Every structure is written in C-alpha cells, then in structure tokens.
Automatic annotation (TrEMBL):
Name recorded for this polypeptide: alpha-N-acetylgalactosaminide alpha-2,6-sialyltransferase
Catalysis: reaction(s): a beta-D-galactosyl-(1->3)-N-acetyl-alpha-D-galactosaminyl derivative + CMP-N-acetyl-beta-neuraminate = a beta-D-galactosyl-(1->3)-[N-acetyl-alpha-neuraminyl-(2->6)]-N-acetyl-alpha-D-galactosaminyl derivative + CMP + H(+); a 3-O-[N-acetyl-alpha-D-galactosaminyl]-L-threonyl-[protein] + CMP-N-acetyl-beta-neuraminate = a 3-O-[N-acetyl-alpha-neuraminosyl-(2->6)-N-acetyl-alpha-D-galactosaminyl]-L-threonyl-[protein] + CMP + H(+); a 3-O-[N-acetyl-alpha-neuraminyl-(2->3)-beta-D-galactosyl-(1->3)-N-acetyl-alpha-D-galactosaminyl]-L-threonyl-[protein] + CMP-N-acetyl-beta-neuraminate = a 3-O-{alpha-Neu5Ac-(2->3)-beta-D-Gal-(1->3)-[alpha-Neu5Ac-(2->6)]-alpha-D-GalNAc}-L-threonyl-[protein] + CMP + H(+)
PANTHER family linked: ALPHA-N-ACETYLGALACTOSAMINIDE ALPHA-2,6-SIALYLTRANSFERASE 1, ALPHA-N-ACETYLGALACTOSAMINIDE ALPHA-2,6-SIALYLTRANSFERASE 2-LIKE-RELATED
GO biological process, any: oligosaccharide biosynthetic process
GO CC annotation, single: Golgi membrane
Location in the cell: Golgi apparatus membrane
InterPro entries (UniProt xref): Glyco_trans_29 (IPR001675), GT29-like_sf (IPR038578)
Entry membrane topology: Single-pass type II membrane protein
Family: Belongs to the glycosyltransferase 29 family.
Amino acid sequence: MFSLLVVISTAVVFFILSWGGISQSITWTAFSGKLLRTYGGSWYDSNLTVLDNKGEWTPPPDGFTSTIKAEKTNFKTDVPRASTHRPVAETPMPVLSIKAFKKLPKWDFEDKYNQDAPPREPTCAQSLRMSNDEKFKKAFLPNIRLFLHKDNINMSEWNRLSHFNNPFGFMGFKYDDVMDSVKFIPKPKEPLLRPGKDGCIRCAVVGTSGILYGSKLGKEIDAHDYVFRMNGAVIKGYEEDVGNRTSVYVHTAHSITSSAYVLKKFGYKSVPHDEGIKFVMIPEGMRDFQWLQGLLKGERVSEGPYKNRRPRTYYADQYNETRFYVLHQDFLRYVRNRFLLSRNVNASFWAIVRPTNGAFTLFLALHTCDIVDAYGFITDNHNKYSNYYYEKNAKTHIVFYANHDYILEKNMWKKLHDSKIIKLYFRPDPENKKP
Ligand SMILES: *[C@@H]1O[C@H](CO)[C@@H](O)[C@H](O)[C@H]1NC(C)=O
Ligand SMILES: *[C@@H]1O[C@H](CO)[C@@H](O)[C@H](O)[C@H]1NC(C)=O
Ligand SMILES: *[C@@H]1O[C@H](CO)[C@@H](O)[C@H](O)[C@H]1NC(C)=O
Ligand SMILES: *[C@@H]1O[C@H](CO)[C@@H](O)[C@H](O)[C@H]1NC(C)=O
Ligand SMILES: *[C@@H]1O[C@H](CO)[C@@H](O)[C@H](O)[C@H]1NC(C)=O
C-alpha cells in the first residue's frame, strides 16, 4: 500500500497567508431555519440535502446573526504523500462524503496549488503585479494554474482534489463521472489575453449591480483592451451604461441556461457573442461536467438536470474549442482561501459556501491583466440602487443567498481599491428627487 494514513486535526493552521484581516464589525447575515437557498437556484436542508423547488423563501430579518458552531472533525483518509519517491497512484481514492463533515475540513495540503510557467515576461510598469502591498504580494500567486484540461490531471491529482468540496475539488464525485468530461477538455492553445504595444493589458470587469444603471460608463468600459462579463450580462438597451463589447464571458451551466429564460423580460436574447470572444466556465458542480461533455462532443447532454439539451446552441454561434477555458479547482480554492474565506465555512451549510461568479471573474482578471477596473460590483451603498442594472430603478435589493458572503466581497473590493490594486467604480447615493 503506497498511501499514508493521516489523521487531520483541527489544529492545523494554514491560512496564515490570507490577505485581508478585514474587521467584521458588520452583523453577519446568515441563515437559520430549515431551508437554505443558493444563487444556483437550489434549496437545501440543514443536512445539505438538495430540496429543489420546495418551500417559500423569506430573507432573514435584518441583523439576524447566526451561531456558527465550530465542530471538531477528526477524519482519517489516504492522502497523496509529499515525497518525491512515492509510487504513482493508480486507483481513485474512496469517495469522501460531504455529509461526513460538519464544517469545512482542513487538510495540510489545503494551501498547496499547482502553478504554471508564466505566459509572458512582465513588462508593464503599472501592472498590479508590481504592487508594493506586502500582504497582497504574499498572498498573490502570479502563476497559479488557471485552467483545467485533459493533460494536467492524473490519478494523484484526482486523489488530491477529491479532498475538497466542489467547486474547489471533487469531493463526493465519482472518478468516471468527472473524467468522462475532463478527458475532452482541450489544452488551451493560447493565453487568455495578450498584451498591447506598451506591454500592458487593461481590463474592465463588468458586474451586474444596479449602480451601473444611468452611469453612462459605456464608452469608458469599451475603451479597455478587454472587457470581462459574467452571468446575466444584458447588453442590448444598456450600452450607454455598460458598453457593448465582451472579450471574456464567464459562466456556469446554471447561469447560461437560466439567463435564457429569467432575463427574457429584460431583452436578453443570448450570451455576448463578439467575434472571437473567449468563454470561461466555472465548473461548480456535477451538472457542469455533464454540460461540458455535451458541449465538447457537440452532442446532447446525456445525464442530469440538462439532459437532452444541446449546449452548443447556448453560445450564439461563437463556440469554438480553441477559445473555451475551464477554471481549475486550485485557482478557485486559492481565491477562497487567500482572499475570500467566509466565516460560514464553519457553519452547517459550509459545503455550499463559495465566492460569487463575479468574484471569480474579478480574480481571473487580476491574474491575466495588468490593470483592472471593476464596474458594477457591490459597494457600501448598494441598497440605494436596484439589484441589477437592467432592472433600472426598480426597488429591488440584493438577496443575500446563503452560499455567498456579500459583505466579505464588498470589503475585499474596497480594500483592493484602497490599495490601488484595482480601480473600483463607486457611485454617490442617488439624490432625492423633489417632485
Ligand atoms: C439531519 O440529519 C440528522 C441525522 O441524520 C437528523 O436527525 C435530522 O433530522 C436531519 N435534519 C433535517 C432537517 O432533515
Ligand atoms: C500529475 O499531475 C501533476 C500536476 O499537473 C504533476 O505535478 C505530476 O507530476 C503528475 N504526476 C504524474 C505521475 O504524472
Ligand atoms: C459597439 O458600438 C460601437 C459604436 O456604436 C460599434 O462601432 C461597434 O460595432 C459595437 N460593437 C459591438 C460588439 O456591438
Ligand atoms: C476555431 O478557431 C480556430 C482558431 O482561431 C480557427 O482556425 C477555426 O477555424 C475555428 N473553428 C470554427 C469551427 O470556427
Ligand atoms: C473556523 O473555525 C476554526 C476553529 O474554531 C477557526 O480556527 C477558524 O478561524 C474558523 N474559520 C473562519 C474562516 O472563520
């Protein structure tokens, strides 16, 4: 037997590199009661059993505070041994059950990530990579592996990643179910972005927040070398405020399929489809691997919630496998661990807690661009505006879904802005219009 039996105790400390130290003076809004709802549209009970389409959702009252129980998890498992002489793993480790853990388990290799050779020499003097912020420099891994493909996974990788819940790894998934898709993901032939003449890559990352409605930022956004968008990126009719270009579109199977019908009433017809656009997928769950298999093979989805759908029809004639990228579990986990680690990873619903798709997109830009301007991300006065820009001035507010920590993200964007690592668009409170 080549594996090593390790008993992980809660005493392992590995988040020392985390960048932030954000003080949490804000009341944590978390979720009590039996049902939890996620942005992905699913309902869960407190045992994380999916209960789709059940129950009425009522947001928790303002100021509701959760009690987060730190439960001790002692768990034995085979882990890949950190030795250069280890025999190559040949079989997948036994599937770990998410339900076996009462909170996020901690492994001593939690904070170890694959890194890749840098795609280019940094030549941009204004690059965020040149930041002098000591904490940021320590946390930031400029060459973190961004993309998963068929050539960068093998059995020991599978076993390592099987210790982390999705989307940070493959806990609870069967090897064949995932690998039947991953074996079709081609190795990207080119870097996501290329620098311009002065060696700098200037990016706009456009979130969907209501502060963009009436902002008239369209021209400024479009003037960047690259424009990133994600999720329900409604453009038609909002060009003056949000621009009309999209170079990189980040999505999940859920976001691309649900946008098609949820956003119809806002004029949304399809994903952005500029000539040569790059599509980036966040593989957040099994359904994304099922989607990927259909997409990459050009067939119908064979299993799961999207069974019989034809994924290629969702990309507005711009699907091309040379421009399709799948984010790597190490990248997603690194973003969570070092920048956006919510206290809710210690709550009973730990396994659904993750950064938003917008957050992963902004961090993807931080790792592929030199200069990042963020528009339409959550700021302190988000409640003064509608939830999404395409809702115009409707009185809608952000629903604080249980799976995301919006306050933590809001503080992180402000901190990155204050440290001059990104430029974040703030908007003053709307003036009270007198009749
Ligand atoms: C969760 O699981 C425990 C133990 O199996 C059970 O006693 C409890 O009733 C379950 N909770 C819910 C909400 O189903
Ligand atoms: C498996 O993949 C990892 C990550 O890409 C790599 O570091 C390792 O050398 C590979 N192992 C084998 C046996 O190929
Ligand atoms: C965006 O608008 C500009 C100016 O109206 C136009 O020239 C350009 O073709 C549009 N681009 C896209 C992708 O629609
Ligand atoms: C996909 O993109 C590649 C590289 O740009 C190009 O050579 C190829 O013709 C494209 N394929 C399709 C089906 O458009
Ligand atoms: C989770 O709980 C452990 C043990 O009490 C604590 O050390 C850790 O800081 C907590 N994690 C977060 C992100 O709050």
